[in-house]
Amino acid sequence: MSLTLTMDFQFTTSIEKLWSALTDSSKLAKWVANIHTGQAMENDFKPFVGHRFQFRTQPTEYWNGIIEGEVLIVEQPNRLSYTWASGEKHTVTWTLKDLGDGKVNLHLEQTGISNDQALGGAKYGWSKWCGELEKVLEQ
């Protein structure tokens, strides 16, 4: 059985600035961090369909510290999708919607999750990261 995580986040920003925070490697490094240490994860993300990328952090005894992905969809500035593999392989899709009045909704859908524990971990991780994303958008 495959589970799906869906979450929505609202930010006070422009859709262009939010798109840039999702697709610019140096900005991603500011908000996608090691959940346990808070250390930024180096990455080589590029928003081009077919681009293979990695996020890298300090390995532990339980994990090699690498998240691998491949960009599947780039529809600037409204939709971005990529695979996200760290043990399990998931698909992450971001949908951006301009709500007007300087507000943007960011919808996350992560598919291919194998069990409730992994679903809870993904929800915790994205909640924490999107809190950091909000700080990046305020800069």
From TrEMBL:
It comes from the Bacteria. Residues 13-138 form the Activator of Hsp90 ATPase homologue 1/2-like C-terminal domain. Gene3D superfamilies: 3.30.530.20. Coiled coil: none annotated. It holds the Pfam family AHSA1. Belongs to the AHA1 family. This is SRPBCC domain-containing protein.
